[in-house]
Amino acid sequence: MSARIRIDGAPATVVDAGDRGLAYGDGLFETVLFVDGRAPLWRRHLARLALGCARLRLPAPDAAALAADCAAVTAGLPRAVVRITLTRGSGPRGYAQPAPLQPLRIVAAAAEAPLPRHWYWQGIRVRFCETRLAVQPLLAGIKHLNRLEQVLARAEWDDPAIAEGIVFDTEGRVVGATAANLFLVRDGCVSTPRVDRCGVAGVMRAELLDRLGEVRQGDIDVDELMQADEIFLSNAVRGVLLVTELGGRLWKPGPVGSRLVADLHTLGFGAAA
Amino acid sequence: MSARIRIDGAPATVVDAGDRGLAYGDGLFETVLFVDGRAPLWRRHLARLALGCARLRLPAPDAAALAADCAAVTAGLPRAVVRITLTRGSGPRGYAQPAPLQPLRIVAAAAEAPLPRHWYWQGIRVRFCETRLAVQPLLAGIKHLNRLEQVLARAEWDDPAIAEGIVFDTEGRVVGATAANLFLVRDGCVSTPRVDRCGVAGVMRAELLDRLGEVRQGDIDVDELMQADEIFLSNAVRGVLLVTELGGRLWKPGPVGSRLVADLHTLGFGAAA
């Protein structure tokens, strides 16, 4: 079996204990679905990574080297989830940037863990989280390594029948789920929370914005959410999942979400156990 | 020479690439000054670490094991800075807590890098940072590994004559400096920003609160800051540093701060080059 982890382009399994990714969460990541060696959303992942690098003042990684790493770690896996992690590398103690800067690139693959089949076709049960996300425009949108808020939100439940948790920002607006963006449909109009103050600009969110055409990106409160005709979640690995239970209300799978589930299935998303 | 890094109690220099400290910043740290093998603020560091563990639902580390690690890594160093890092350890992909939980403990020492002598006795020049810190009560006070805001703030300047940067929260209140708490004196009254919505509850801050007796912990805006008779910064390794230049205003070292510098010097803080 080929090595499933490459660090800076070579097989490895460990990183320097002084790496700034570990010290400060000083870096970025992407979680990429590969189907038969191909990532359907590869260009979107690269684009978001480049955006994150610009925001954190990191040099963007070499796309060819990244692709080569991904090919090596996914070899022999028909369906794989690859995590790409970029950090500012090691340096002396303190927040100041190390000079010279030597970023670290970790590419690790695992076989995809399929979800229960009925999640895709019947929808999922989700809950509200108490954990609120801070409003921070400087870090909003990018997929950085500072994810304690998501860890705390996800720790609020351990019932495996609950697929996700809906999170709000500290000012009461819907942000999305702990590891997904959120869309809602009302009277035929699609809306999704803006991601310029809080939340992640998901690559599957970007894919859906292109597929759906007109989507309102704005502020969504709990009332608007609960009055929706359809709610669905988007994730770069899972694709689209329809919400059928939240906060005491039930929904049947709706036409907009169901269509997306089917369309993304043909792209390779949504393998079920 | 004895090893300067111990991981889970044994000499080591690397960590598993799947550690959650690296993946999500899922952990805590302390930066501790050791003088002749003794940490003057040891109990305060342990107390803050315990508070952080409770907040992040991590088991508190064994104090005796931590002390033994520190003794090992500081052996032979008259003045050392020890970084203790605790993470939630390795686990499968995703924000959900791994079960069973196997936290990771890293203890690393380096010789103290002394500051310019005049910084202690003449004071320091500091600047205002543009980077604002998010308001997040769930993470305020504890010394967690999600430090991108501090990295971005510290990246705003590289003039070595500027010792620190003053940061505000997204609502315009003074939080402190990138790696220090802030105190000000006005008409004999001492104030410091509250740390229950934003910022770190520094161990040196706690030491100063005890030493100074009556200190107001509240909201401080830029006007109150600039009208202060004295401003000084506190840090667990550097001790107290007096601010003598900020935002176009100059201060002379004042009596409250100067007294603290002298008192902390007898405790071992403030070695100068």
TrEMBL record, chains A, B:
Enzyme Commission number(s) from the entry: 4.1.3.38
GO MF term set: 4-amino-4-deoxychorismate lyase activity; pyridoxal phosphate binding
Top enzyme category: lyase
Alphabetical list of SUPFAM superfamilies matching this protein: D-aminoacid aminotransferase-like PLP-dependent enzymes
GO cellular component: cytosol
Lyase in keyword set: yes
InterPro entries per record: Aminodeoxychorismate_lyase_IV, Aminotrans_IV, Aminotransferase-like, BCAT-like_C, BCAT-like_N, Class-IV_PLP-Dep_Aminotrnsfr
Reaction catalysed by this enzyme: 4-amino-4-deoxychorismate = 4-aminobenzoate + pyruvate + H(+)
Keywords: Folate biosynthesis, Lyase, Pyridoxal phosphate
Record has NADP as a keyword: no
One Pfam family recorded for the sequence: Aminotran_4
CDD domains found in the cross-reference section: ADCL_like (cd01559)
Transmembrane parts of this sequence: none
Pathway entry: Cofactor biosynthesis; tetrahydrofolate biosynthesis; 4-aminobenzoate from chorismate: step 2/2
Record-level GO BP terms: 4-aminobenzoate biosynthetic process; folic acid biosynthetic process
UniProt superkingdom: Bacteria
Essential cofactor(s): pyridoxal 5'-phosphate
Similarity section: Belongs to the class-IV pyridoxal-phosphate-dependent aminotransferase family.
Description of how the protein assembles with itself and partners: Homodimer.
Protein name per the record: Aminodeoxychorismate lyase
